[in-house]
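Reagents: none. Just compute today. Archaeal Lon protease.
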Amino acid sequence: MPSERTHCVNTGPTARTATGDASAPATAEGESAVDLLGGLDIETTDDVAVPDRLIDQVIGQDDARDVVLKAATQRRHVMMIGSPGTGKSMLAKAMSQLLPREELQDVLVYHNPEDGNQPTVRMVPAGRGREIIETHRVETRKRGQLRSLVMWLVVVAVLGYALFVAGEPLVGIIAAAIVFYVFRVGGRTQRASVPNLLVDNGDQQTAPFADATGAHAGALLGDVRHDPYQSGGLATPSHDRVEAGAIHKASRGVLFVDEINTLDIRSQQKLMTAIQEGEFSITGQSEQSSGAMVKTDPVPTDFVMMAAGNLDAMENMHPALRSRIKGYGYEVYMDDTIADTPETRRQFARFVAQEVARDGRLPAFEAAAVAEVVLEAQRRAGRKGHLTLAFRNLGGLVRVAGDIARAEDAEYTTRDHVLRAKRRARSIEQQLADQYIARRREYDLSLVEGSVVGRVNGLAVMGEDSGIVLPVVAAVTPAQGSGEVIATGKLQAVATEAVNNVSAVVKKYARVDLDEMDVHVQFVGAGEGGVDGDSASVTVAAAVVSALEGIPVDQSVAMTGSLSVRGDVLPVGGVTYKIEAAAKAGAKTVVIPAANAQDVLVEAEFREQVDVVPVSNISEVLNVALVDAVEKSSLLDRLSAYAPAPPGRDRNRRSGPTPAP
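Predicted 3D structure written out:
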């Protein structure tokens, strides 16, 4: 049976010149920079208008934006769940601009002469707090000056009498010291009359916004500082040691807590109380501190809660707190990608302009540079016809490109600056993957030439945006008892699952009884990177079949894909990064699921290095991966009855290339 490759796909945008020319072709379809910008005909980002309101700067999160607008009108709580960097904190800040303008208050804490450990709390209109504090300070200063004058007159009189009248200088000195101490202790009472400005909203033009992400209990709920001087007239009045928490500073505004599940359970319980009661007393959070005895009157906590987190946030979140937010507000899931349309492309051009304006130090981006950012957004989306909404990482690319341009004193940031930034702004996972590949080459672990029985170059993803080549080696031996899967290292469960997925196919066509064989599987060097067991099932299947049939595998072929029990190749994630990893390792052909063909957007430097072959079933995988031999033809003939080729496709005849994604 012939061994031609079945399909090849174009792997991304065609190469372009790096001159920053807006008319340069941008994609395989011949899109210009103007097309990539959704028809936006600009020279630089200086020509793009940036909205004043934060809510109008939000891109791609239409559902979340609508929820925030409704929640702001009705003062409802909101919980946003989604991937990091998709705009949760931006929406929270936008909420503070949208809340109805209410009469803000300053919060003052006064000394309680009846019980020094229970300071009293008073609310006054915003701005009045400073005036009251200054008035008390002026009065205290005047009283202190008068008290000091009287004290020194008394001290001089005592010393004069003791020296010149009584003739007892030692008694006079002792008496003067006693007078000084009495006046000093009495002055402490005067100092305690000055209140502590706990919450100051005097300069607040919009509703308050408090970011309590990662805050410990004291920063979130308020605290009372420890006083090392608790006697001898040096003690600090308790009301002066009271500190407001984020829940108090956010009153009549927005309290934002990202990764809310990282708060300990006790803090979540107290946060729920603050939401429910609308007020919360401040006490010392450390049981060993002198502030543990202090507890103020209740302080207002009339805030709107904006909670955020990843999907795991809901698992570790206090159920009563979540119920409180859900029952009196909204829950919204943040999108990871958005449909790639002319309108959204124009929004991405505005995003670049927003980042430049927000930073304030970056040169404006030329149109071709912005188009390159849009292309990167397409690539990072991992889906055909979509753009990524991970704006924090994309904004990092914008800032690195701008920094490169600024370091060169360039007037504008060009496309070349963006291309260089993409290489420089590699993630830690990408850097580790590159080092990993280099080390494997040094020790001849990356075999990409010749053919070997039972060895297949699989592909995996490290982190979110880095691929690695992960060889899988299989050997089949007669079992002493019932057959089993034997895997080395931490990936035994992965190997077992992968073999179980392919066992139905193997048992259907194999000449031997798999139940009487031991299948040994090893992921070579798997400790260096991540492995997705499901996406490794095609690789494991090819290695096991090669070992069973004794047919060598072409080592210039790398592959990824999930396999059903019927032998169908199912789609997986990260195909673009896996293809690039295969190209870096020196592979010539990459087998991917046919369903992922539309998701391929490979960087230009790797585009001509590999042929990408989309496949739909295990027979196509083996047709590409196994070396031509009589045994291969026999194997594929047996497989054809179990996993026939899709209608209209001849497995033995090369098809034309599928359209570029």
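Residues 128-199 form one domain.
Action item: order primers for follow-up constructs.
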